[in-house]
UniProtKB/TrEMBL annotation:
Annotated catalysed reactions: Hydrolysis of terminal, non-reducing beta-D-glucosyl residues with release of beta-D-glucose
Molecular function, one GO term: beta-glucosidase activity
EC number: 3.2.1.21
Family of the protein in this entry: Belongs to the glycosyl hydrolase 1 family.
Pfam family, one: Glyco_hydro_1
Protein name: Beta-glucosidase
Length: 470
């Protein structure tokens, strides 16, 4: 139960919803789109649950007008979507594919016509396959290719799009893509994962600077999935050191370069047996640091860790599914312990207090940096009634308690400018395919029909009132 029913939010607080291109668009071979690493990965047997792919997904590519109608009916002030790089620049370099650009141009116009602010993410994981074939994120050139693509998009859409996010969750791109291999491209090379971390940070800086070279007034940001990690025994120095290591790998590996212009010394020391970090060139971390109007924060759950003494079976209960390797590069003596429930259908524990802790902690460390919750939400098994209505009381409760936790953070002094529910629609949940549903709107994958869940009605009322129901 929320203890703060009736909590109100600051004037102008942004209520939005978020999606990502590969998760909703489908039309994988239409309109001149080139293949991405997620096409290759999802078509490789054994990589995704039930062999699901994004070939059709929500067919948003054809149903975008209907989807804009839902966004408008929800009364949202902003919509966060991503551009599929291989749709607009099929090989990741060279000339633009006009048909791909036109799709996003129409989408932007449609949003503006309905009074909804477009919030564009340039990279939500669908790297053009040609760039992976040339080495992918572990290779420096990928960052330069990203900057070129960012500049082209700013030229095409910058007359109407003012809010640009360079990368979504580079933690996932680097560690799930190149260390644990549960995400595309499915490589399990710990040293490559750290090179990917760096080239993603560099891409953010180069890309953000490229956008601003075209649009000096552009609002530029990055979205990070920051980990709230707690020690099993708060009085144990060893367990608290495990927390420090996870914080370095997952949070400060990105916050460091992006906000402070440097990698933390303890991260470099902790991973010295994996890489010498020689891929960091002079000036790179200064390049990665650009002023950002907001820092995007995605929050879902918390993690619990302790020092592993090297005996017995080391738990891999790290919330990341069936990992062939560990995403925690170099943290060989850290053990992830399954936190207390309740859990969502992802097996992630539900802990709204982590949301408050994260936002308040960030604003203490970076008092001048406004924040935006760019994703929060949950997968549950929804109940479809005989009349077709969809009931998702657990999602309503999850969203209510986490929105309340955002309110508590604001009350405690955090400068949080808005909240985006993940996700507008049920969609392709990466390695879990269509089996896990995060939408506030249900998608019937046979008919592709959209149906508002109880959470959609609840969210509409929240946005209209700018307050939790009393
Ligand atoms: C985020 N993890 O992904 C993404 O930004 C979305 O595309 C995704 O659908 C959503 O959260 C729900 O999963 C994550 O393993 C995927 O910690 C995996 C993790 C975190 C976020």
């Amino acid at each position: 139960m929320s203890t703060h029913d009736g909590r109100t939010f600051p004037d102008g607080f942004v209520w939005g919803s978020a999606t990502a291109s590969y998760q909703i668009e489908g039309a994988a071979k239409e309109g001149g789109r080139g293949p991405s690493i997620w096409d290759t990965f999802s078509h490789t047997p054994g990589r995704t649950l039930n062999g699901d792919t994004g070939d059709v997904a929500d067919d948003h590519y054809h149903r975008w007008q209907e989807d804009l109608g839902h966004i408008a009916d929800l009364g949202l002030s902003a919509y966060r979507f991503s551009i599929a790089w291989p749709r607009v620049q099929p090989g990741g370099r060279g000339p633009l594919n006009r048909e791909g650009v036109e799709f996003y141009s129409r989408l932007v116009d449609g949003l503006l016509d309905r009074g909804v602010q477009p919030v564009v993410t340039l990279y939500h994981w669908d790297l053009p396959q040609d760039l992976e074939d040339a080495g992918g994120w572990p290779v420096r050139d990928t960052a330069y290719r990203f900057a070129e693509y960012a500049e082209l998009m700013a030229r095409e859409l910058g007359d109407r799009v003012h809010t640009w996010t360079t990368l979504n969750e580079p933690w996932c791109s680097a560690y799930l893509g190149y260390a644990s291999g549960v995400h595309a491209p499915g490589r399990t090379e710990p040293d490559s994962a750290l090179a990917a971390v760096h080239h993603l940070n560099l891409a953010h800086g180069l890309g953000g600077r490229a956008v601003r070279s075209v649009l000096p007034e552009a609002r530029v940001s990055i979205t990070l999935n920051l980990h709230v990690t707690r020690p099993v025994d708060p009085d144990s120095d060893a367990d608290r050191d495990a927390v420090r290591k996870v914080d370095a790998l997952s949070n400060r590996a990105f916050l460091g370069p992006v906000l402070d212009g440097a990698y933390p010394d303890d991260l470099l020391a902790d991973t010295a047996h994996v890489t010498d970090w020689s891929f960091v060139h002079d000036g790179d971390t200064a390049t990665a640091r650009i002023p950002m109007e907001v820092l995007g924060v995605n929050y879902y759950s918390t993690a619990l860790v302790r020092r592993w003494d090297g005996t017995g079976e080391r738990l891999e209960a790290d919330n990341h599914g069936d990992s062939s390797g560990s995403p925690w590069v170099g943290a060989d003596d850290v053990e992830f312990v399954r936190p207390e429930g309740p859990y969502t259908a992802m097996g992630w524990n539900i802990d709204p207090s982590g949301m408050t802790e994260l936002l308040v902690g960030l604003s203490r460390t970076y008092p001048e940096q406004p924040l935006m919750v760019t994703e929060n939400g949950a997968a549950f098994e929804d109940v479809v009634a005989p009349d077709g209505s969809v009931h998702d009381g657990r999602r309503v409760a999850y969203l209510r308690d986490h929105v309340d936790a955002v309110g508590a953070a604001i009350e405690a002094g955090a400068d949080v400018r808005g909240y985006f529910a993940w996700s507008l629609l049920d969609n392709f949940e990466w390695a879990y395919g269509y089996d896990r549903r995060f939408g506030i709107i249900r998608v019937d994958y046979d008919t592709l029909q959209r149906t508002w869940k109880d959470s959609a009605y609840w969210y509409r009322d929240l946005a209209a009132a700018n307050a939790l129901p009393g």
